[in-house]
Design a protein that fits this description.
Elements: E1 19-22, E2 25-28, E3 34-35, E4 38-39, H1 51-73, E5 79-90, H2 98-113, E6 120-126, E7 135-143
Parallel strand pairs: 5-6
Antiparallel strand pairs: 1-2, 2-7, 3-4, 5-7
Helix pairs in contact: 1-2
């Protein structure tokens, strides 16, 4: 497992929280493939963006979602596992490899938290995403808020 620094939590792109929680369940906002607030790729999957590039972008989105949750709860070591993930793909009408794109987000979670932390997920094709992003990911996770003595 690798460590995503809590300092890499992306800033909100509007008037919302990047992550919130209730009891031991944390929810990320929808995250696009940004580094330091800058969108790394724009376009439509199946037209101007390849499935391979979209898969990599989905991985970055998942990393951002996990970083947002980790910054909220005090570190990645408090994120126990992901419960649910939705991967939105801005795609052409004939693009159907949505699951292959979503696999990039799953791969990022497995790398950061381990295979046992993989969530149930949905991959949904949409017409447009914020700022022209090709992919957006949100994650719901179980977190451990108890400190060990």
């Amino acid at each position: 497992m690798s460590d995503v620094s809590i300092a890499t939590s992306p800033p909100a792109q509007g008037k919302y929280l990047v992550a919130t929680m209730h009891d031991s369940i944390a929810y990320s906002a929808g995250m696009t493939p940004r580094i330091d607030g800058v969108l790394q790729i724009v376009g439509t999957v199946g037209d101007s963006v390849s499935a391979a590039h979209a898969r990599a972008a989905a991985g970055l989105c998942a990393q951002n979602a996990l970083a947002a949750i980790a910054s909220l709860v005090g570190g990645m070591d408090r994120v126990q596992r992901c419960l649910r993930m939705t991967v939105y793909v801005a795609c052409s009408d004939d693009f159907i490899a949505l699951s292959a794109v979503a696999d990039g987000a799953s791969a990022a979670i497995a790398e950061i938290l381990g295979m046992e932390a993989l969530p149930a997920r949905a991959a949904i094709g949409v017409k447009n995403l914020p700022s022209g992003a090709p992919v957006e990911v949100d994650i719901t996770a179980v977190v451990n808020l108890h400190t060990e003595v």
